[in-house]
């Protein structure tokens, strides 16, 4: 680096302008909500014009490829919307699913306790899918090879999340309240009721993004993540041949 006394005065002015410009933009950004935005840089270097870059907020990054919940009682609706959208390529909002669930449930009970698995099952049937609950031994949880809805109990607070994948040490979930996250297997097992709820129907995406949760990339995880589901694996969770053939 050149000594300060050897730096040309015009470069000093340009450097100070850049620092002040960036400082003002950062200060302004910190005062705004954490939302995605187009960041524009202009007038810093003569002749360069305007540079524009789209930035995603931390919240948006946490909720990538899933549907977040926006009410206290809609974790089940958001979890179901996540599976329908990202495993069956539907285009449903949380509000769409809430409206459908309210048509097949008791609104007063929903206000007090939220939606139940029975409500979710009835709604899935009303739109041409089948919903089935399975009791799963924790020792065989890794054999669940499709995204499912599970109920967790956080210190008395019952909460639906999407189980994407599990290993002997970790469980990957799409949490409608907290976003995509990884739980320690022991913590998950301690708070899970042992039931998985599968949504079964035609046009299941065997390479759904839900089955490929992001983690530290290695050659093995890259190979495993793109392993397509076999018909036998789908049949284990209630799929029938007509589902496979799209009949």
TrEMBL record:
GO terms for cellular component: membrane. GO terms for molecular function: ATP binding; peptidase activity. Residues 69-199 form the Peptidase C39 domain. Pfam families: Peptidase_C39 (PF03412). GO terms for biological process: proteolysis. PROSITE patterns: PEPTIDASE_C39. InterPro entries: Peptidase_C39 (IPR005074). This is Peptidase C39. It comes from Methylotenera oryzisoli.
